[in-house]
Amino acid sequence: MTRSLPNVADVARRAGVSTATVDRVLHKRPGVRTATVQRVVQAAAELEYLPRQELHATLAPEPMQLLFVLPDRSSFFLRMLGEWVGYSQEHWAPFNVNCKTAFIQSFDPEALADMLCRRGPRVDGVAFMALEHPLVREAVDMLAERGIPCITLVSDLSHSKRVAYVGLDNRAAGRTAAYLIGRFLGPARRAKVALIAGSLSYRAHQEREAGFMQLLAEQYPQLQVLDLREGYDDERTNYRQTRALLEQNADLAAIYNIGGASEGVARALKESGQEHRVVFIGHGLTPDTRAMLIDGTMDAVINQSPQSAILACVRMFTNLRDRRDLNSGVEATRSQVIFRENLP
Fold first, then answer.
1. What's the predicted TM-score (pTM) here?
2. Structural domain tally of the chain?
């Protein structure tokens, strides 16, 4: 006699629940207690209602939904950061997370706060490049009250309820840039030095400037720092700023680009024939800064790994989910000074 195949009603009777509950469990719908889920799965396994592989999938928790919010018109480094989120889903499989990227208009705190408020409540964690602004701070605090952790990435947010910051020690990065310029120019030389920031609405850029100024005052007081200019990580703006600096200061000896769009600075240096005279330090090893190091337009790049930054965020979010220490398995962000001779 042929054995009849089990059905949903058989599983429900074996588990002591309704057929509606079995349906919710097998289709992974919310609203069923963990103990009930396990009872239904055990009953289905005993009756051989589904292949064992499908039953294991039923017990597996839903992937953690993570959102990375980044500026839409910014440096090559930040574009690489966004690409890593999308291109590396297979790397996140062991963590059972699903990572997505959302882009906002650069240097717009209202757009950033709006994105956090709209998309944040629909995910399990948000990582974003912070802008110092009360609206952004309020959005982060609102998400924290709802139990949704936020991690600031590359640039931090002061006096907020974010759970962690992933990125460089930016004050140390600024000091490093000043030290390099001082050593390149020599201790006895009197000269002018220029700073170009993306925007001082980024705490990272504020801290890099502060560290830079601090070290020059300590060790190279003979160097005169010109007023800081903002280039908004825009190539054309950085080009115009650099052209003006060169035209107004014949004795300009060094430029520190605190933010992105170093290609604009490089173009101005090359057009004026100053690319091998003016010391040029910037941030982020990207295809364009690599080319500038190779041809000698840039002297050094202070770099952090975009892959390591994204991985650190993912590990922190999953540590919170699994109730482990926040920094378990997370490597501290390290800066690397890259010259033409040690290009990786």
1. 0.83
2. 3
